[in-house]
Design a protein that fits this description.
8-stranded mixed beta sheet, 18 helices, alpha/beta
Length: about 325
């Protein structure tokens, strides 16, 4: 792995929610309303009884609990339909006068591309295709590392193609080893790493195994590409020390991600900046109360806002100008 650029981006569901996609509570409703789920009162009951109406917890309880096969099939069908609905929303999104300007978003993200020889990294926990289908990356190379069918992408490749036409099987252990150092040379470059996989991906053995629920780390460990991606994330925010990580729209609900960030802050000087509309105490203190003082010292910035608050149609909003001035200085040392 070549040395990454200093500034790294991590996105979660709150990032693409700015463009109409689902948050966890929306996924719960989509699955609960599905006709297959509606046929089984026991599945409905399990979803209603899930912790805080958490669709991932309900999925785990049903799939790995004492339920009949037809009930397990119902929750799987509901989840698949919710992902298909999400992709339809992403595909049909139009850049309207009231939406965030995609060109402005792309130019902001391209700042993370680093320099030739030092690729920039975007890590995401999202499994949607918003970035591939919608964001016009024109100034830098953008790749999905390790995929068999060629990993460079742009909107011309993905824009309106149906899921079935871009579905692919992930590489085997040996194939992943063969691509770990295959980075473009001599150009600005963004590496887009989908830590929890993607809607259209199938396992290296052809299985359908979405990375959701309490089994995430186990599923990741069983999939060579995702296991490599987890290492990439850990290496990118720790090697060399004093990396800077901007987090947009991640609610800190995944212990394995939180632990990686926590250790990077405590042991490797990671500087952490967060963009989220939640109250800082609700997002941070309630979910990360077990962090040590040494880990907390890594928290360098908190911006309580959404992307809508930051970008207008042609120019950033007043709040956006303050954000950009602060974050560009902090991440890229720009005046």
């Amino acid at each position: 792995m070549p040395e990454p650029s200093t500034a790294i981006l991590l996105t979660g569901a709150g990032f693409t929610h700015n463009f109409g996609s689902y948050l966890a509570r929306d996924m719960w409703a989509q699955i609960f309303n599905h006709e297959a789920v509606q046929k089984h009162s026991s599945v409905q009951r399990a979803m209603r009884n899930s912790d805080s109406f958490n669709f991932e917890a309900a999925y785990d309880d049903i799939l790995y609990g004492d339920f009949r096969e037809e009930e397990k099939t119902a929750i799987v069908e509901g989840l698949s339909a919710a992902f298909a609905n999400l992709d339809e929303i992403v595909t049909e999104f139009n850049d309207t006068p009231s939406s965030i300007p995609l060109n402005s978003l792309a130019r902001f993200i391209e700042r993370f591309a680093g320099t030739p020889g030092n690729p920039g990294y975007i890590f995401t926990l999202n499994q949607d295709l918003f970035m591939e289908r919608q964001v016009p990356f024109d100034g830098v190379l953008t790749t999905l590392p390790g995929l068999k069918q060629g990993d460079r992408f742009n909107r011309n490749t993905f824009r309106h193609r149906p899921l079935d036409s871009i579905r692919l099987q992930l590489p085997s252990e040996d194939e992943v080893k063969g691509c770990e150092d295959a980075y473009p040379k001599g150009a600005q470059h963004l590496v887009y790493v989908k830590l929890h996989g993607s809607t259209e991906w199938r396992g290296h053995d052809g299985s359908v195994r979405p990375v959701i629920g309490r089994q995430k780390t186990k599923i990741i460990d069983q999939e060579p590409l995702l296991r490599w991606y987890a290492r990439l994330f850990q290496q990118a925010i720790t090697t060399p020390p004093n990396r800077k990580l901007l987090v947009i729209g991640y609610g800190f609900e995944d212990p394995h991600i939180n632990d990686t960030i926590r250790l990077a802050c405590a042991d490797h000087g990671l500087r952490l900046y967060v963009v989220d509309p939640a109250e800082p105490g609700d997002l941070l203190w309630k979910k990360l109360r077990d962090w040590s003082d040494q880990s907390w010292r890594g928290w360098a910035g908190y911006f309580r806002c959404t992307l809508h608050d930051l970008f207008a149609r042609s120019n950033p909003t007043a709040q956006g100008k303050i954000f950009l001035r602060n974050i560009l200085h902090a991440l890229f040392e720009l005046p």
